[in-house]
Amino acid sequence: MDVRTITRCCEPVLTAPLNGADAEELASAFKVLADPARLRLMSLVASSPSGEVCACELVVPLGRSQPTISHHLTVLVDAGLLARERRGKWAWYSVVPERVALLRDALAVSVH
Amino acid sequence: MDVRTITRCCEPVLTAPLNGADAEELASAFKVLADPARLRLMSLVASSPSGEVCACELVVPLGRSQPTISHHLTVLVDAGLLARERRGKWAWYSVVPERVALLRDALAVSVH
DNA sequence: GTTTCGTATTGACGTACATCTATGTATCAG
DNA sequence: CTGATACATAGATGTACGTCAATACGAAAC
After folding, report:
1. DSSP label at B68?
2. Which of A90, A37, A28, A68 is closest to B18 using CA atoms?
3. Structure pTM?
4. How many beta carbons lie within 10 A of that of residue B14, not counting itself?
């Protein structure tokens, strides 16, 4: 998903019927979160005191190969959930809270 | 996912590091929402004035076969997101807002 | 009982994707 | 320049799952 759509994604699921396009977009967003490795990466980055984590600190705790971690981090960055900043040889990642909040708001419950 | 776990699922993603088991559980929950057909079903049921919808009203708007709709509805029920009630030949579905709220709360953002 | 209708299940097929190994790219040290 | 380090990319493989046609199940009508 294009990060530039961050201000408009996503329509609430539970207030009005979703059309096909909005459903595809929102499903793609949830698909990024629908993986245990990516959820753990999000939580590790978010729970860091400094708010950012070097990729080198993420391989061991997840117990996956370095390419796999790199792949998941790229997916999260492409989805706008993480921000990547390169410093020399290292890549530092931080959570984009506005993006998470948008997905959260998509699950707003309307009381009947 | 077992509906009986409704009161404990899920750990917040962004406040503390997720262990493997919690990550698996939460990923399974999001996986249910990571499908456009299921999101549209949720929105159609939720936006019904009466709060419940007959399965017979859900096939045409989604443009999929009846078995496919039935499959998705079963997935949503098994995940605790929808409740099914049979009345004679018909099956009526309603949203379980507490369950949606739990997933929503799992995306709570902790401000640094 | 028989038929009809609404829904659920089964089995098959194709696609998507998580993961790995191997390799490429970029940066720093010497 | 050379080697080492950190990360990304490419290609391959196995599994998961969305979808359908066909069938089974169950309830109501006659």
Report:
1. H
2. A37
3. 0.90
4. 21
- The answer to whether the CB of B102 falls within 8 A of the CB of B26 is no
Q: Tally Cβ neighbours within 10 Å of residue A9.
A: 21
B62 touches strand C (CB under 7 A): no
Interface of A with B (CB under 8 A): 13-18, 20, 23-24, 26-28, 30-31, 33-40, 42-44, 46-47, 51, 61, 95, 97, 100-101, 103-104, 107-112
**Residues pairing with A83 in the sheet:** A94
How many whole angstroms from its chain centre is CA B54?
16
Closest among B30, B22, B109 to A94, alpha carbons compared: B109
Structural tokens at position B110: 């902790």
Q: What is the pLDDT of residues A31-79, one digit of tens each?
A: 999 999 999 999 999 999 999 999 999 999 999 999 999 999 999 999 9
CB contact under 8 A, A110 and B20: no
